[in-house]
Amino acid sequence: MLFTSFTFLYFQVLVVALRWSLPRRVVGPMLLVAGYTFYLSAGPIYALLISSVTIATWFAALHIERTRSKWMLGVSIAGLLLILGYFKYANFVLEQAFGIYRLLGGRPRSVHYSIVLPLAISFFTFELISYLIDVYRGEQAERSLWRFSLYIVYYPHLIAGPIVRAHELLPSLRSFKSFDGRQFSDGMFIALAGYFKKTVLADNLAPWADAVFSHPAAHSTFGTWMGVIAYTGQIYCDFSGYTDIARGCSLMLGLPLPDNFEYPYLSRSITDFWRRWHMTLSRWLRDYLYISLGGNRRGVLRQYRNLFLTMLLGGLWHGANWTFVAWGAWHGVLLCVHKVWSDKVVGTGPLVRARETLPYKVLAGSLTLLCVMAGWVLFRARTFQAASVVFGRLVRDVPGAGVMTGELPQPLSTAISCTVVLVIVHIFGYSHAGFDANRAMPAPVRGVFWAVIAIACFLLAESRATFIYFQF
């Protein structure tokens, strides 16, 4: 049930109506039924999986709270990771093993299992792991199984985040609040903004990005640059658009979710970028992986190692492909370089004052964005060979490649237009101008404003089958 489908819109309207018309004591069970209905709409095969791991984790957390058993914590986390690893990485591991065997002179018969990745498995696995660790660290375990199940299958954040920790949602599920008109209005605006990002910007940027990355050798330097720029805009608008819809729909139900993006392409360092991009994942990696590896407690060199390993594993989490690992390694190196620059150069020299000047900010922001875009090439390309062709086209034009006479191809001109709109959205959104204007408008004017956004989404949409992060 895609957020951009009319089926979901009908579903959301029904759930909102039930939320505010039913007695509060039955709102929780109703939302639990709604969550499983939403999950089952993608197919009933793996409903048993999510319910089983939810129940097992609930029992394990109660045992960990009572006994502080590190053994139970380790076994529970290992079990969750084994399930995730089987569905997500089994074929990848087999391919690497066969590749090594071939290098040694063997002739293995290739085996590829038809494994369907369960919907949202990466996201709910991370939430279950964080819950177990938090309980081990001293947080109280949830006593109600149905309430804990609702925390996991609550449909707005279920499929692609934000990754919500138990303490961010469970208190709201224990005591549902009364209707708040301003909160509902904020939710409507945030959801509509998400729909605009997804259906108008992301989906109209996608055709040119797909064309360039599918056949990178067929495009000129200008066309390739626009392809990389288009994908840079597409992945942001697609993913942040999804989470805006999720947050907006949840606010309409009276349940706030954490923000996940804060205009990351305005960052002035790669560290700042990861504070703004997929913020719930960044905090998860910091709190449950980086700190567990030792964080910055054992010297500078180990801190760099921990940063690199955290991002390397974060890249692998995105998918079973070496290009994702390379993307994570690239960001790990960038974080270490920025740490050296910040601590050893800027932190002790005359650049301390210079970094507050406009030229420094512009240069730092531009360099950060270029580094992020280089990473997106690795992230989007299916092979290293394709990525190398894209990088080659970015710096060296080839006579006759992608030569265009007359008007620009329609997907390219659309991508240029959407890029301009995205820049404007970033600038105005960073100042919260749209959000503040929505709150300041009288109710009738606000209704017209919402209608204009909805009509724009309907008329300008270039509908695509799914969201990018559904594959993770």
Give a verbal description of the structure:
The protein is mainly α and 472 residues long. It has two domains: 171 residues, no CATH class; 289 residues, no CATH class. The chain is built from 20 helices and no strands. It is globular and about 70 Å long. The two termini are 17 Å apart. The model has no long low-confidence stretch (mean pLDDT 88).
In short:
With 472 residues, the protein is mainly alpha-helical. It contains 20 helices and no strands.
Question: Which helices and strands occur, and which strands form pairs?
Answer:
Layout lengths: L5 H16 L5 H14 L6 H21 L2 H34 L17 H16 L8 H9 L1 H4 L7 H9 L6 H34 L6 H32 L17 H7 L2 H15 L6 H18 L4 H25 L4 H4 L3 H23 L3 H12 L14 H21 L2 H8 L2 H18 L12
The helix count comes to 20
Q: Please state the overall shape, judged from the principal axes of the Cα atoms.
A: globular
How many beta-strand segments? 0
Total domains: 2
Assembly context of the chains: single chain
Main sheet properties? none
How far is the first residue's CA from the last residue's CA? 17 Å
Which residues form runs of ≥5 with pLDDT under 50? none
Task: Name the helix and strand elements from N-terminus to C-terminus, one letter apiece.
Answer: HHHHHHHHHHHHHHHHHHHH
Helix content: over 70%
Task: Classify the beta-strand content into a percent band.
Answer: under 5%
Structural class: mainly alpha
